[in-house]
């Protein structure tokens, strides 16, 4: 993947979201502000971390997390431990069980990978949302029928 800097339109295209979603996520402070480019022009641009954050948001939404949940997941001061992430996931599982059993089952399976202890940087739930490469994320794709990118 190219590393940027990107314009807003390029960012949206690379992350697979609309320009309106980029604006919304920035307004909600889910997406970091653009950074100043290293050039004489001093323009602002988006970089790889912005693309990764948008993909994280998209994956989390596809699994049933709400924007409020995602705000907590991306804020390292609000969810400090792996247990915090697990608790938020299980809260979402309980809410989804009645109306979306497949999604609830997929989230529960993801939660099962969590040791519920340790730092958030070691949390397999966050790793699955960031990378979509671990076995848990692949299993989620098969269970929910939605492709996670």
Write up what this structure looks like.
Helix content is 57%, strand content 3%. The protein has 149 residues and is an all-alpha fold. It has a two-stranded antiparallel ribbon. Helix 1 crosses helix 3, helix 5 (82-96) runs antiparallel to helix 6 and helix 6 runs antiparallel to helix 8 (135-144). It is elongated, with a radius of gyration of 16 Å. The model is unreliable at 134-144 (pLDDT under 50).
Radius of gyration: 16 Å
Order of helices and strands: HHEEHHHHHH
- Distance linking N and C termini: 13 Å
Strands of the largest sheet, in order across it? 1-2
Number of domains: 2
Structural class category = mainly alpha
The number of distinct helices, counting runs of at least 4 residues, comes to 8
Q: Which parts are unreliable, with pLDDT below 50 for 5 consecutive residues or more?
A: 134-144
Can you give the helix content as a percent range? Answer: 55-70%
Largest sheet descriptor:
2 strands, antiparallel
- Which term fits the overall shape? elongated
Relative strand content: under 5%
Q: How many strands in all?
A: 2
Mean pLDDT: 84
